[in-house]
Amino acid sequence: MSGSDFQATATQLLHRQSSSQQHLRQYTFAATIADRFFSDNSLDRQKRVVECARRRQTRARDKALQQKMSLLKQNEFEYLKMSAKPREWDANCSTLLQRTSSTFGGDTVSSGKKRRIDNLELSAS
């Protein structure tokens, strides 16, 4: 038997042993948690355990709802931001066209472009 075979066999034995004791460990853990409330098996202890579980579920549900609402608000904000971009771009273009026509004295876009090209050629030479 090589070292790796021995290690594999030992691992399998440990796994089998832990699997057989898993149910007992789960019961022991549950009993330990339940004993945090009362040491006897009274109905009052059982009610407290149920109430604690309900409160935990309520907190988890509220937290999930808050996260969902946060994501919805974030998505809504992103959507509004993206939908506002075309309007901003249109507003910027119209402002630019107004500036161009007032700067170069033309009423049309084509005359403004032509004069701007002429000015660029003059400044480049």
TrEMBL record:
Protein name from the UniProt record: Uncharacterized protein
